[in-house]
């Protein structure tokens, strides 16, 4: 089993070396280090980058030297990957950056709608029902655009809104069908994301309703634990192994990745 989505201290995770060591201890044959990266030039994003220090666009070459070194030390495949923030307005900047950086593969994520992180409940709790529905519509427009852009091998946590109580349960079958249809026609594949699977909420992305539509459209999937701490890896790996066994899914590698 391989895990195509973990973070390191090149964004908001623990030390790169600790993450790789935990992946090896968990018995993984491969681990993909997919640190957050945002290349939007709008002021909001530029200031968020300086506040949070997610600067893989500036540090990927240093991280690559680290990964090369760890490849000699550890007995598993280590993939040099990225989790890019996607926004339709940034397509040209993302395309230029990905071509220049040459990662093993790229994960695309919609994290923000209208400058608000969709994982943060307080961003939406004061909104009216209609405003929340508009956020959900915007989210799926962005997600479909991400898939249609063909910029990414993987799309992360495709029903991320389900994490967020004010936005949860608002996606319609029409939203989900548009997503499934877009994946069916794209090289981009969704991941089974275990980032919240073992939390109180017990959420797997995509949830049953979307997952069954993706299967109806014959969309392949990959897997990621979305771990940020070494201790998260083994339990989430076990969870994903059981999940794919129970559901009969056969996860695949990202497009173009040699094993
Ligand atoms: Zn993410
Ligand atoms: Zn992530």
From TrEMBL:
Lineage: Archaea, Methanobacteriati, Methanobacteriota, Stenosarchaea group, Halobacteria
Listed InterPro entries: Histidinol_P_phosphatase_HisJ, PHP_dom, Pol/histidinol_Pase-like
Gene Ontology BP, a term: L-histidine biosynthetic process
GO molecular function annotation: histidinol-phosphatase activity
Catalytic activity entry: L-histidinol phosphate + H2O = L-histidinol + phosphate
Domain PHP: 3-193
Functional pathway: Amino-acid biosynthesis; L-histidine biosynthesis; L-histidine from 5-phospho-alpha-D-ribose 1-diphosphate: step 8/9
Keyword annotations from UniProtKB, A to Z: Amino-acid biosynthesis, Histidine biosynthesis, Hydrolase
Name under which the protein is recorded: histidinol-phosphatase
The EC number(s) this enzyme carries: 3.1.3.15
UniProt keyword annotation of Repeat present: no
Family: Belongs to the PHP hydrolase family. HisK subfamily.
UniProt source species: Haloarchaeobius amylolyticus
Organism superkingdom: Archaea
């Amino acid at each position: 089993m391989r895990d195509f989505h973990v973070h390191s201290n090149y964004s908001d995770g623990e030390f790169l070396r600790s993450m790789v060591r935990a992946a090896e201890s968990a018995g993984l044959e491969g681990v993909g280090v997919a640190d957050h990266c945002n290349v939007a030039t709008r002021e909001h994003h530029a200031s968020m980058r300086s506040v949070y220090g997610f600067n893989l666009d500036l540090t990927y070459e240093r991280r690559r030297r680290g990964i090369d070194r760890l490849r000699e030390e550890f007995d598993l495949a280590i993939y040099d990957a990225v989790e890019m923030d996607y926004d339709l307005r940034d397509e040209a900047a993302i395309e230029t950056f990905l071509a220049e950086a040459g990662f093993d593969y790229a994960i695309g994520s919609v994290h923000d709608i209208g400058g608000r992180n969709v994982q943060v409940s307080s961003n939406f709790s004061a909104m009216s029902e209609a405003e929340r529905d508009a956020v959900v519509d915007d989210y799926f427009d962005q997600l479909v655009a991400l898939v249609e852009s063909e910029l990414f091998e993987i799309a992360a946590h495709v029903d991320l809104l389900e994490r967020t109580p004010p936005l949860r349960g608002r996606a319609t079958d029409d939203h989900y069908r548009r997503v499934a249809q877009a994946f069916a026609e794209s090289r981009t594949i969704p991941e089974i994301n275990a980032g919240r699977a073992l939390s109180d909420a017990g959420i797997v992305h995509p949830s049953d309703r979307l997952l069954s539509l993706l299967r109806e459209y014959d969309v392949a999937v990959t897997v990621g634990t979305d771990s940020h701490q070494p201790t998260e890896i083994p339990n989430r790996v076990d969870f994903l192994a059981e999940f794919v066994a129970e559901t009969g899914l056969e996860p695949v590698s990202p497009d173009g990745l040699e094993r």
